[in-house]
Design brief:
The protein is mainly beta. It has one domain: Sandwich (Immunoglobulin-like). Helices cover 11% and strands 45% of the residues. It has one helix and ten strands. The chain has a six-stranded antiparallel sheet, with no helix packed on it. Strands 2-3-8-5 form a four-stranded antiparallel sheet, with no helix packed on it. The longest helix has 18 residues, at 2-19. The radius of gyration is 18 Å and the shape is globular. The two termini are 31 Å apart. The model is unreliable at 4-29 (pLDDT under 50).
């Protein structure tokens, strides 16, 4: 009887660990720029490839975004496979570069407050199964400014 309870508890914990989702934190300065939430990560394959996705909320009265900068943690390797969708699920045209540990995404057409949510998907991210949580630091540039504004971070647990 005790063994059955122990096995049931262990199995419950294992299932809970596999279903775990990540959360993103944002520093928004009274929502003048944007905030991040609802990040998701698909399970790794044999090569530890994962898809990491998070949402960026654009405030209604905020300035238009011209650039999004993502600082990649040293525990992962990001590929050139990046998708950004608007709140209607339409793919947004972007130009991007991956330099060492930094992804710079330029929006040829600035993202205005008419787009309330951006869904950013980093496809084919190589992540070790047994590593610490991956934390991406995000900042943005608005139209008419070269100043990098920190907007938050997205965290993804390892498997």
């Amino acid at each position: 009887m005790k063994r059955t309870l122990v096995y049931a508890a262990v199995c419950s914990m294992a299932i809970a660990a596999l279903i775990c989702t990540g959360y993103a934190n944002a520093k928004t300065d009274n929502n003048k720029l944007a905030n991040i939430e609802n990040n998701l990560q698909s399970a790794p394959t044999g090569w530890q490839l994962v898809k990491q996705t998070f949402q960026l909320h654009i405030p209604k009265n905020g300035k238009a975004l011209s650039q999004l900068i993502i600082d990649v943690p040293s525990t992962v390797a990001v590929s050139n496979d990046i998708d950004i969708l608007d709140d209607k699920g339409q793919k947004i045209k972007i130009n991007f570069s991956v330099n060492s540990r930094r992804i710079i995404i330029n929006f040829p057409e600035p993202v205005t407050s008419s787009t309330t949510i951006l869904k950013i998907s980093l496809n084919k991210v190589l992540q070790p199964i047994l590593s610490s949580t991956s934390t991406y630091h995000l900042s943005a540039k608005v139209v008419g400014s070269d100043l990098e504004i920190p907007i938050g971070e997205a965290q993804f647990p390892s498997f």
